[in-house]
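QA checklist item 7 of 12: single-chain prediction sanity check.
[x] sequence parsed
[x] length recorded as 300
[x] structure emitted
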Amino acid sequence: MRQKPRVTVVGSINMDLVTKADRFPKKGETILGYDYSQYPGGKGANQAVAAARLGADVSFIGCVGNDLFGEKLKQILVEEGINIEGLAVSEKAPTGVAQITVAEKENSIIVVPGANHDLKREWLEKHRAKLLSSDILLVQLEIPLDVAETVINIADENEIPVILNPAPAQRLDDKLLEKITYLTPNETEIRVINADDESNFDKQLDTLLERGVRTVILTRGEAGVIFTSQEGLQFKDSLKVEAVDTTGAGDTFNGALAVGVAKGHSDCKAVEFAIKAAALSVTKFGAQSGMPRLEEIENA
């Protein structure tokens, strides 16, 4: 029997504090919401859960605070079957939180990083063996940039595929981009990375290829996905579903993409798998609670 694909995620872990309302408040306005919930979140932890539910052997490297949110989040990862030997505990910073407002079938998010920004490069060195034993590495930008760069450098030096989900977006150096196997921006993030407001996304992708990225996968929500391949630019439609909460769609996509690549799928097949997973995720509330399991995708 084939071994499960090994995915290691280095990234953020937060408690999501979710408020629901009929609409978003205007600047300076107070309105009444109709529901409040706490959900496990953080792009790193979300993507780890997505990959684990889709059949991967997942390890997570990150940092929580020495508090109740931290303990709860560790417990949740363990219950998902995720290895948390690489989860550090900060004694000086609280566990990260994200304040999410859901209204009009969209969401707005404010993230307070907390312990996520206490993750150090030295901690990665302690867990280098775990990184090197992985089929693929997955990292985002809700952790310090030097930590993300270290993950990418380790991947590049050891010929391990690495996905960078560049969120929240920031300008990235060409020397770093050259080491990235898969870059997965959305429409806003690709503009920031290129420092270009160009709305022709074919040109935006070409720019990133010229800057050294091997494969760019641009996620466009309901408009589908554009990605680069040896045959040139490829386009895949999104699946039409009744969306109730888009909070975890991007993270589900990235976790699923990592699983597909780690299984040895072609880029096209891995993207199709990720699109399907992301589509199913928006049909339920909550970033992690909405993430599908492998059997759901197979039966959809």
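[x] summary fact logged: The chain has a mean pLDDT of 93.
[ ] second reviewer sign-off
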